[in-house]
Amino acid sequence: MGQELDDMRRKVLIGEAVDYVCRVKLEITREKIMEVERVIIPKEVFTSPFLDGTLEEKMQEGLEQGRKQGRKQGRKQGLKQGLKQGLKQGLKQGLDRGAEHKARSMAQIMLQDNEPIDKICRYTGLSSGTVRKLSR
After folding, report:
1. Alpha carbon of 44 to those of 16, 17, 32, 39, 104: distances in Å?
2. CB of 99 within 8 A of CB of 121?
3. In angstroms, rounded to a whole number, what is the distance separating the alpha carbons of residues 44 and 35?
4. pLDDT in tens, 79-136
5. Against a cut of 0.70, is the pTM above it?
6. What single-letter DSSP state applies at residue 27?
7. Do residues 110 and 119 make contact, with C-beta atoms less than 8 angstroms apart?
């Protein structure tokens, strides 16, 4: 493990890093953070007991943790939306099938009573072809 930095040296290093970022007007990106690590901050900072590993390792750990949380949240949200959509579609299909079944049942009863096909179509909403098939 590297040497611990005293508070004064740590403040100086942080100040130099901030000055460097401001001087070159860096947009803070992963690459720019790595540049600050290379140019300003000595390796002993990244091997102090306060940090387990380098800044690069910490960034990777943070990215992976963020990805895991994002996947977990995405799965949860996707499951919730899928369930809601599935229930809605299932209910609609069930109602449609029930209405179709009722119309066919009514048509069969009307056919048994020898009602004309055009009347059955008017009352049930079924096509004449469907009613003809039911009459066979």
Report:
1. 15, 15, 19, 13, 83
2. no
3. 16
4. 999 999 999 999 999 999 999 999 999 999 999 999 999 999 999 999 999 999 998 8
5. no
6. -
7. yes
